[in-house]
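Worked example (supplementary).
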Amino acid sequence: MSELMTKARQLDAADELAGLRAKFVLDEAVYLDGNSLGALPAAVPGRMEDVVRRQWGALRIRSWEESGWWTAPERIGDRIAPLVGAAPGQIVVGDSTSVNVFKALVAAVRMAAGDGDGRDEILIDATTFPTDGYIAGSAARMTGCTLRPVTPAQVPEALTGRTAAVLLNHVDYRTGRLHDLPSLTAAVHEAGAYAVWDLCHSAGALPVGLDEHGVDLAVGCTYKYLNGGPGSPAYLYVRRELQDRFDSPLPGWNSHAEPFGMRPDYAPAAGAPRGRVGTPDILSMLALEAALEVWDGVPIDAVRAKSLALTDFFLECVAAYVPEGAVESLTPAAHAERGSQVAVRCPDAGDVMKRLIENGVVGDFRPPDVLRFGFTPLYVGFADVERAARILAGILD
Amino acid sequence: MSELMTKARQLDAADELAGLRAKFVLDEAVYLDGNSLGALPAAVPGRMEDVVRRQWGALRIRSWEESGWWTAPERIGDRIAPLVGAAPGQIVVGDSTSVNVFKALVAAVRMAAGDGDGRDEILIDATTFPTDGYIAGSAARMTGCTLRPVTPAQVPEALTGRTAAVLLNHVDYRTGRLHDLPSLTAAVHEAGAYAVWDLCHSAGALPVGLDEHGVDLAVGCTYKYLNGGPGSPAYLYVRRELQDRFDSPLPGWNSHAEPFGMRPDYAPAAGAPRGRVGTPDILSMLALEAALEVWDGVPIDAVRAKSLALTDFFLECVAAYVPEGAVESLTPAAHAERGSQVAVRCPDAGDVMKRLIENGVVGDFRPPDVLRFGFTPLYVGFADVERAARILAGILD
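After joint prediction of all chains, the assembly is encoded as:
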């Protein structure tokens, strides 16, 4: 057994989160694509059976009250809250990430307009996952703003008295780079603008600290590190102090102060429910609720520590096994700048990923030349990491 | 046995759709709330088990291709298409009805703007389900239009050279009144405006004829007469000739011409996928797909004929059993003006509905004084109808 295999065993033996793996349905493959779709939590199938057969099939409409369907968006939001450093009552679950980006960004621009100093520019992360940019373009167009893409590092110098809102990704979907949320948020605030963060690639993998750092609005998906299932609903965070000023571009009946009053005039609900729109997709939402139970008693700091240990070890194994120069890492070496994935660039990356998958190592390929490996600390172990790097080396050799 | 009980037996015996009831999970209650939440189709639990355990649990991300997750929104749209009189390739499933109303109405206003004659008014059904009005208000605000609520009957005279778009409900959620889609659509077109129809309370209960009548855009939910499950995704219809001019206010990455190209600039997909936004909620969506299988080989004209026979018979039984003057029907007597529900008004309607439910007749209450009874032709029979009217009479007596 190689030195790194021995080290992997030792790391696994010392891993205080190792027991969580049993709470997921996994097979012999090394699954390093949890940053695309999280693995199935073992509690979900039984819960879905109950939701479908008993709650829908037997109780039918009574479930809106009796099974807690109606309040699910806020209740599940409160389950996500501690994972992103938010006190209860500030997160609501529902709709896709794209739709929530639209709500958050339009609301932020309206808050800036309410401040009365004529701000008309939205700054956006130029390296963002594209949907954020497309939606930000629409938000700008519909609010009379201009959209200005800059790299996150350029944000402090790009902020001006015209800046209304800034939309940033906490972790870059491609490179895995972690951006400095506390200092960027502070810079945005110093310029008198509103900070909107996209947490898709950070929530569930590392501490976010929304309340602590005074983030204004945030959105995120739940099907990556939160394991909510394919296309499970996204969430929207609106800081408590801003909730009364949250003016939604999608004021559906679920966000009304009195949804069953059926009143012709809109009056927004107080608190997190103001971020709701239409009828929540209960099946997807309650699968997410069951999936979130794996987090009970799991400290996010321990998750972060293991995540860094996993990516460190992967980089170590790649350096040891892979011929020098065969791959180039896009992921920052500094812990403070690293999310929970490692992205490497190599020629023929599409083919390499295909062969990796054939050999039981599941990551994904992002054109033109990037191999992405996501490390979900809840179910990936150090032996998985060593094996993935070893198989990658074999393919590249 | 009373005369009406005998008649119910005869009607059930002659009902060519009676066999469909076995395709649903029902119990001894008379379920007349399918216009709120359709009953569980028997095929759904097994399908969900497969989707959760095999497609998500075992295949994981491979299911985006191998299990057809990626193309589900268009594929399921094409399954809904024949039920609303649409040729394939014009309907996409996803998001809530409210979100789709926003897409459709903003797109309609932009089409009108593209026509170049400075139209800046949206007409809306003043008796609409409130969410349509709230969302239309936002669409108007964000496109620089004014919103003018009128009753559907007033639409023809309210149309002017300023009218950009008209949003109407095919069937009124409260009274069950069916509006005249062909003639109203023709009037809207004659005025040079765009017609947007909300089909929530008609699709699956009666023929709609979207293509035949030249409807421009339409939206609808799938959890009522289509039995898709609580909060199952809604759908958006864009007439083929208008697809190239559909300019979405929610241009998420799923609507991009090349969604996996990860390009910074937005370029809309051709056809129905242009109406997509973010990642589709697969669990809810595939439950809907299984639910739609009950429609295989079911002609919508036969469904309409049975629906009218059911509501006729309910009105007949109510007239025979309920003391004169105890209830007042809000549902038009004329078939051409009746959807698939009967709404009656009575004092203490909330308490009456509570006692009906206790006695095994499930309808719903809409403030301040309306009892709603929905008749889903796929699983409601004539004996159910007679029993419901008899129990209602007993409570009111």
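Two points are worth noting when inspecting this output. Chain B touches chain A through 78 residues (CB under 8 Å). The domain at 3-17+298-396 of chain B is CATH 3.90.1150.10 (Aspartate Aminotransferase, domain 1).
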